[in-house]
Amino acid sequence: MNVTIVDYNSGNISSVINSFKEVAQGKVNIEVTSDLDKIKLSDKVVLPGQGSFKSCIDALNKINGLTDILNEFAISNKKPLLGICVGLQMFADIGYEETETKGLGWISGKVLKIDNQNGKFKLPHIGWNQINIVKNSKIFQNIENNSHMYFVHSYEFIPNDKNVVSATTNYSSDIVCSVEKENIFGTQFHPEKSDKIGLKIIQNFINL
Amino acid sequence: MLKNRIIPCLDVKNGRVVKGINFVDLKDAGDPVEQAKIYSDGGADEICFLDITASNENRDIIYDVIEKTSKKCFVPLTVGGGIRSIEDINKLLNCGADKVSINTAAVENSKVVIDSSKKFGSQCIVVAIDAKKNGDKWEVFTHGGRNNSGIDALEYAKQMEENGAGELLVTSMDRDGTQVGYDIDLMSKISAKVNIPVIASGGVGNLDHLVDGIKKGKASAVLAASIFHYGKHSILEAKQYLYSKNIPVRI
Question: Which residues of A touch B119 (CB under 8 A)?
Fold first, then answer.
């Protein structure tokens, strides 16, 4: 099996690579590439993302044909794809970080700044927070409710259809922190930085 | 609910831990990778490396240390010490660091924080503030505490937030190494001044100091070195103690 981590200059992805390689233990091939043919032929795709919504979308668009290949992979061929952090946020129709930016539009909704309630809540939301599992997602197999995950973000994804939400976390309000829509999965938290429990989520995705 | 973080810090010189855990069962007490693994297995919420290597020829060793550690520890890794440029930051992040902490370079050239937070995202840019009390204010020191910039620490903290820092690592130079507790006054004033998380550092001698850093100092995270290194307390003990004082922690 081939799992491809999309390398599109979206910031630091070494932790994502390390964690997937740790879980794969050489039994599953972990490819890190922006090569369109390799992405097309892989069994699963991981879409990481750090920095701003706009910078990630810009970086995706800079690689000719990449969004088309991702669309084909996730939407037409319905193969499993995991978005992490801004990787998840980009599923939305539109994001408002820096400036209004069009997203991939895979899961209808928008990405807005977390309401810090006039400074009552510090931003970014950095650190370990518990997830409240609201839907039995395949990547949460053997993950206990209220497990701690590592977060670092200032923006939140607000999907129109709440049925896609698989977990929320409480910070200022109940923030969507995991989604599942058919073959498309996303986590706002960083499973690659969430210790053993995070690696378990990665394992679940690889095992899909 | 967001938990308060406990961050053990390892001082690394020429690729070796200089203040470290003094456990008898350690194969190599100077190996930073092994020590970091003990901390992450023990429940550390993040691990901080402070590179105190003085000579330039040995500065590259830290990259190798980070690369090895990041393949074994799956919690956030922060690296500080000697970071001067965007290129230094890029190299550390590529080796597996999740955040970098910038001290002297942030004082000398405001563009470093502005540009790096734009390029890599605020989430990985920590500005380290070494502050020393002078009369009724605190001044920012650089070069490992050797040079006084004369800059007011509170104003500087606000400026760094505006420049794009994601977090502030605030060390009281008056308290560092004394084990008499954090400078609570400094921590609470900076914490009230900015809307980004503050990590308290410098002066921890017992578990009550950690409690004070969070409750009175209003820090989001507490960093400590010696109370963990010499086996005085484990990370778990610290967390259980904080929990008993109604501080939310990840156990």
Answer: 51
